[in-house]
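Quick one: structure tokens for this chain, please?
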Amino acid sequence: MTTSGNRERFRRAAAEERPDLALLCLLIGAESDPEGGEAAIDAAQIELDRLAGELPADLPGDGASGAGGSGPVPPGGPQAWAEALRRLLGETYGFHGTPADYRRLDSSLLQAVLTRRRGLPILLSVVWIEVARRAGARVYGVALPGHFVVGFGDPDGEHVLADPFAGGRTLAASDVDLLVAGATGERSPVPPTLLRPADPLDTVLRVLNNVRAWAAARPEHSSVQLWALELALLLPHRPMRLRLEHAQLLVERGDFLAGAQELEEYADLVATVDPRSADTARHAAHTARARLN
């Protein structure tokens, strides 16, 4: 698959009414490894299906997807799903994370996470979500500050949270408070708003943010930062600051003309709401064009 073909597929997948989280994450992986192409994407989808097929057939129905039964979530349902995923993915297959995984790009690439069975919390959570979803669970991601976990059941009723980074360990409210405190330094109960299901596109943007952060700390990998930004800019809704970051990166990489043009476009977009930022961007564009001489 060509880079342009991969990006067009990513753009179309992101624009779907119900975006396919697994596919979007796999397309991010394909951007990092174009040689893997469609074959690697298909192999990863098959692996997710295979793992889902290894879950017990008698798990309680979710009351939402229609798989595994229908009606209200039965008592113990979310806990049964969480435990089944912990045993299969955490114990049998050894999916988990360690601090060292934060230093690896492939910890943010779904194809590699499925192969290594190691990754960042958000990618391990994608594995949990996609395997459970395929088996008929009511499952969703929870984007805590600095950590990503998985919810089973009804977010407004009976539910269980699990931490795939810790092999699928279920989390009490106090455990969630400790996770957030470790990331933010704020030692207070986590408000219910932080426990809402994460939107798939917000999850994808967070994955790309992790890739950008990894590359930004390693200037020799500015090409990785560039493709992560360019994929993020294909999402239907993205922060305006990404346009500025992309323009600045183009200038840093020596593409002065394209960077200057994008700086000017950014200035035009924000001029009415943030004239100071617009003036700064226009000055940066002028400086970039001057470097062409």
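The chain has two domains: 57-195, 200-290.
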